[in-house]
Amino acid sequence: MASTVIAAAGLVFGTAGSAHATGHGPGNYGVWASGVNVRAGGGEQCYLYPSAANCPDIQTTVSNPAQVWVYCQQEGAQSVGGNPYWVWVLTPSGHRGYMASYYISNTTDWIDGVEDC
Predict the structure, then answer these.
(1) For 9-22, how does the pLDDT look when each residue is reduced to its tens digit (9 = 90+)?
(2) Closest by Cα among 84, 90, 83 to 62
(3) Residues in contact with 78: Cβ distance below 8 Å, sequence separation at least 6, in sequence order
């Protein structure tokens, strides 16, 4: 019985840990490219319609194999690689801002379970 409980707990923890990596909710996601800009600034236009032009201040850059914490996502004023979404992230260096969702390791443009910003 104890081994069954431990095995079941392992399945539960394993499922929860992998949920973020497979695109089911806010959490850590990998970045597959190098030198990806994390942007802010530009006031309301940046927050409502993220893009390189509307979010002119580069807070930092992130590169593979880094992971960023994805809080929310927003359709932007600019598509990157055919992906129209931008994600609000926290970087390993502690910076917050928008980055193009195109650079997030996820199988779809929209990350399932991550709310609109």
Answers:
(1) 333 333 333 334 45
(2) 90
(3) 50, 51, 52, 53, 54, 100
Structural tokens at position 20: 């973020």
Q: How many CB atoms lie within 10 A of CB 100?
A: 24
Q: Among 115, 30, 39, 32, which Cα is nearest to 75's?
A: 115
Q: Between vectors from CA 66 to CA 103 and to CA 39, what angle results, nearest 5°?
A: 55
pLDDT given for residue 50 in this prediction: 97
End-to-end alpha-carbon separation of the chain, Å?
Answer: 45
Neighbours of 112 (CB within 10 A): 12
Q: What is the pTM for the complete model shown?
A: 0.79
